[in-house]
């Protein structure tokens, strides 16, 4: 345990409090960017890319290489179940929802692509914050986010090719390289820093969740600010589709876990991990691989606001009704 000065303890407490309000900041970013886009336009695509890499590196700072290995060896049955739920529920429903949207007259095909793309993402780092508020199983939550993120270098290009490839051409090799650059490389870099410089990192990682929250705030704000017209014209069908997609993930993640006889604590954790995807990664991939069709990013941005709102409401309910240890 690192020894902190009184000032450092106050700063750490403030950062922890600020981070717990993550859903509020996401919603605030979305609303403010929609009404005052000029506030966020300075945070361009380059900033977004490096910002996402920073968030992933911050996740790596909480890990060691032995812990990454243990992700696949400790409680393997729970982790395997979590991964199956993560990479089946949303992709399946994302496929059917996107096909439905693609068949509707008046809806741009890129919007259907964006919905399918979101459904193929790994778990978002914000899920760990929400799981904490919901009194979930934190080690399992972190392991699932870590494992799904590491697996994303294979699963995201493959699933995107299968789901989106039926709508538009997809280059899975290029997407694999993007996920490798955006996810695996920074996670391993952060892990290496924690492994070899633990004393220095111990102080830094007190503040990385706060900084990651600020970065995600800016990413969401920038994505909406640069696509105000697209988001505004998305229509009720797209908003409803994204809401149904994430709500289905939350609901089935919980219901299937309970049906398999798992504890309520693990069921809450699975619900959050399945329902909350890395919308920021989806938005960056949309910008890089579907640049010719700017509407693809709209469902990704709406996804961030939706799962943050639904997740925070669920977490608040569980926090108020569940006893500690249940």
3D structure, described in words:
With 326 residues, the chain is mostly helical. The protein has a single domain, classed as Na+/H+ antiporter like fold. The longest helix has 26 residues.
In short:
It is found in: Membrane. This protein is mainly α and 326 residues long. The chain has 17 helices and no strands.
Keywords:
globular; 17 helices; Na+/H+ antiporter like fold; mainly alpha; 326 residues
> What is the CATH architecture descriptor?
Up-down Bundle
Provide the CATH top-level class: Mainly Alpha
In sequence order, what are the helices and strands, one letter per element? Answer: HHHHHHHHHHHHHHHHH
Percent in strands: under 5%
Radius of gyration from the CA trace? 19 Å
CATH topology: Na+/H+ antiporter like fold
Shape: globular
Largest sheet: none
> What is the mean predicted local confidence, pLDDT?
85
| Number of E strands | 0
**Domain module tally:** 1
Membrane topology: Multi-pass membrane protein
GO cellular component, one term: membrane
Family: Belongs to the bile acid:sodium symporter (BASS) (TC 2.A.28) family.
Pfam families: SBF (PF01758)
